[in-house]
Amino acid sequence: MGNIPPVTKNLLIINVLCFVGMFVARRYGIDINDLAGLHFFLASDFNVAQLISYMFLHANFQHIFFNMFAVWMFGRVLEQVWGPKRFLTYYLICGIGAGLIQEVVQYIEYATVLSNYDSVQTPFGIIPMSEYLNQMTTVGASGAVYGILLAFGMLFPNSEMFVFPLPVPIKAKYFVMGYAALELVLGITGGDGIAHFAHLGGMLFGLILILYWKKKNGGGRIYY
Question: Buried (b) or exposed (e) across 5-15, using 16+ Cβ within 10 A?
């Protein structure tokens, strides 16, 4: 941990503490993911602060493990290149952007389908629409993580990496493009309960920010 840059290290620590705190709170009947997770903006439990708090919460061990592994693996490199302030800014904007895109996707679902009904049939019975909207909650750092993957692919496009189960190394730029294409397909097909468009939203906001920084630098690469 001593060799990890400060922002990356603190992001890892905060996320792990929040994950442990989630289990402790449950013993007292408190659902942190429900309180601080990102709710649909038309739900009664929505709060603007959730656009930040949601990215420090995770649903299960697999969720947090892979997200934090990516933050450790790629985030520390970006922080060493950009510096702590720029890296933290990038991380938060990607996470917030992912949340905003998720809100847009949920609104489209609501406007085209859900608004036509007063209640929803769930595996646990019929519930009022107002209650169902409060169950549309998003948690996880995945949007910020996908932004990190995009930045790594843009800054180090020809870096080769081994990705299981591929038997040969793949360049970072192809890895990122492949992940983006996969998320788009999964987002369109849907049905797995994962916010794929939020992941793409993190990449989109990351791309916009990188292009903005690049333009400010007159098209140079080192600054951004």
Answer: bebbbebbeeb
pLDDT digits (tens, 9 = 90+) for 173-207: 888 888 888 888 888 887 677 888 999 999 999 99
Quick one: tokens of 108? 């489209």
For 70, residues 6+ apart whose C-beta sits below 8 A from its C-beta are 145, 148, 149
Residue 2 has pLDDT above 70, yes or no: no
**Quick one: pLDDT band at residue 143, thresholds 50, 70, 90?**
very high
* Other C-beta atoms lying within 10 Å of the C-beta of residue 129: 17
* Average pLDDT estimate for 164-170: 76
pLDDT at 169 (0 to 100): 82
Torsion of CA 69, 72, 77, 81, to 10 degrees: 130
Three-class DSSP labels, the chain: CCCCCHHHHHHHHHHHHHHHHHHHHHCCCCCHHHHHCEECCCCCCCCCCHHHHHHHCCCCHHHHHHHHHHHHHHHHHHHHHHCHHHHHHHHHHHHHHHHHHHHHHHHHHHHHCHHHCCEEEECCEEEEHHHHHHCCEECCCHHHHHHHHHHHHHHCCCCEECCCCCCCCEEHHHHHHHHHHHHHHHHHHCCCCCCHHHHHHHHHHHHHHHHHHHHHCCCCCCCC
pLDDT at 157 over 70: yes
pTM over 0.85: yes
